[in-house]
């Protein structure tokens, strides 16, 4: 049935949620469902067969399916987690719970009872709000607004296990840039996106540099990361990034095409390894190996680019 097809939910600043079938071309096909809220949509998460929508008024609307598997979009359950002054701007699912960031505070939402069971400060810097979150195993990575520091928290104990400053690594990557550009980017440097994929934490920056860091092992009993957390420039291997901010990082997996594994049929067990692509979106394109000015510099600096990284 059409109503049981996979869907994509798209939230807008004017408080509207457009629901499309995943296979639809949204440029030419009208949305399947339109839901209007009174506040801007900040974040949408699908978890445990429900859709959680955080709004600018501090509420989280929870959409569920009815007994026939159809989304009940007319009567969502609403839970107040934040406030108008400090709404939920980011949500990440971890260990069957939902971590919600309200300014510089993390509120842990129990998705069974739909109540906040714990909250703690993501930083002692009360003037800085949490800007990005990423999850890997029992580790949750946080970055703060206008900051080049990343913090690692334990998903169960909520302890801060360590932190790392990305500024030295970014400065090193910008060594071949013009002095004025380098100084400007260093002065306003901040983390703009985080992604944990496979064994790496990917870090997008306002300078356009994309960094990676090996993910440390976090167990149920970990209280501190013993080894030093170190970031490296992806540009050392593939010297590409963005001229301006890295707007987002995401990962896409695709399995081998039909027939690709036939040549391995003589082995005891055929394993299909998914092809993993990390995608960065940002302003302009930059080759950090080149110190010179490109012929298209300025013309494409503000053009949106997608860069694909095969891992």
UniProtKB/TrEMBL annotation:
GO molecular function: guanyl-nucleotide exchange factor activity
Keyword DNA damage included in the entry's annotation: no
SUPFAM superfamilies tied to this protein: Quinoprotein alcohol dehydrogenase-like
UniProt keyword annotations, A-Z: Guanine-nucleotide releasing factor
One Pfam family it belongs to: WD40_2
Source superkingdom: Eukaryota
GO BP term, example: actin cytoskeleton organization
Name used for this protein in its record: Rho guanine nucleotide exchange factor 17
Taxonomic source organism: Graphocephala atropunctata
